[in-house]
């Protein structure tokens, strides 16, 4: 007699990238918008911030989840200790890209899994090196509009791939969800339930 199918993971997110990654991994999921307002605690490190936001997102929807595990994720682009969020407009996007050009930044993601009886919060870091960018490179990318709604003003899964020279770590973390970390946590916490562990 086969085991019953695992309940869908409840993804506390409004990101279009995160469901696509769960789909790619073959994990069942349902999406619900988190009822959580991100407020950065003064003096917190980028790692502390993304872990706190991931926990806040997951906890904000956990009450109605029943037996389903809840997944919250938060991602930041970090260079020299400064967090690069979503740019407010074209000029801010251009400034961000110019600063990232020719340098290596970190994509830091916090991930929180909440299930009845336990909660786990982890983080992952991927290092991304941009090639040297000319003002023309920056202007062309900004004009394409892909920067909108993207931390660090770029999308590696789109035209932003042309800005990147090298990456060290989990590529999917840069897209929006630290997939290797999620699979490891599912294998540890719910072995066999989602085809892993």
Describe the structure.
The protein has 197 residues and is an alpha/beta fold. The chain has one domain: Maf protein. The protein has six helices and seven strands, in the order E-H-E-H-E-E-H-E-E-H-E-H-H. It has helices spanning 17-25, 46-62, 90-100, 135-144, 171-175, 179-189; strands at 9-12, 29-32, 70-79, 82-84, 104-115, 118-130, 164-168. The longest helix is centred in the first third of the chain and has 17 residues, at 46-62.
Feature tags:
197 residues, alpha/beta, Maf protein, seven-stranded mixed sheet, 6 helices, elongated
Quick gist of this model?
With 197 residues, this protein is α/β, with parallel strands linked by helices. It has helices spanning 17-25, 46-62, 90-100, 135-144, 171-175, 179-189; strands at 9-12, 29-32, 70-79, 82-84, 104-115, 118-130, 164-168.
Outline the fold blueprint:
Blueprint: E1 9-12, H1 17-25, E2 29-32, H2 46-62, E3 70-79, E4 82-84, H3 90-100, E5 104-115, E6 118-130, H4 135-144, E7 164-168, H5 171-175, H6 179-189
Parallel strand pairs: 1-2, 1-3
Antiparallel strand pairs: 3-4, 3-5, 5-6, 6-7
Helix pairs in contact: 3-4
């Amino acid at each position: 007699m086969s085991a019953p199918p695992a309940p869908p993971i409840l993804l506390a997110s409004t990101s279009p990238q995160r469901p696509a990654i769960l789909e790619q991994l073959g994990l069942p999921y349902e999406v619900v918008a988190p009822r959580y307002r991100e407020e950065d605690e003064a003096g917190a490190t980028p790692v502390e911030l993304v872990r706190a936001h991931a926990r806040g997102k997951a906890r904000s929807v956990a009450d109605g989840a029943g037996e389903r595990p809840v997944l919250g994720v938060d991602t930041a682009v970090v260079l020299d200790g400064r967090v690069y969020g979503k740019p407010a407009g074209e000029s801010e996007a251009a400034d961000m890209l110019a600063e990232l050009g020719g340098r290596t930044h970190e994509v830091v993601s916090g991930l929180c899994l909440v299930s009845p009886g336990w909660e786990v919060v982890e983080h992952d870091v991927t290092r991304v090196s941009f090639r040297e960018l000319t003002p023309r490179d920056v202007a062309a990318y900004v004009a394409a509009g892909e920067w909108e709604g993207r931390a660090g003003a770029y999308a590696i899964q789109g035209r932003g791939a042309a800005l990147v020279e090298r990456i060290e770590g989990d590529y999917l973390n840069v897209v929006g969800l630290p997939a290797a970390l999620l699979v490891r946590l599912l294998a540890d916490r719910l072995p066999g339930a989602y085809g892993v562990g």
